[in-house]
Amino acid sequence: MKRTRLPSTATLAAFECAARHLNFRRAADELHLTQGAVSQQVRLLEAQLGVALFARVRQRVLLTSAGERYLREVRRILRELGEVTHQAMASGDKELLNLAAVPTFAVKWLVPRLPGFFAAHGRVNLNLVSRSAPFNFDAEPFDAAIHYGEPSWPGAVCTPLFEEDMRPVCSAHYQRLLDLRTPADLARATLLQQFTRPSAWQDWFAHVQAEPANAFQGPRFDSFNMILEAVQVHMGAALLPRFLVAGGIARGELVELSPQGLPSTRGYHLVCSEARQDAPAVAALRGWLLDEVAASLAG
Question: N or C: lower Cβ tally within 10 Å for the chain?
Answer without folding.
Answer: N
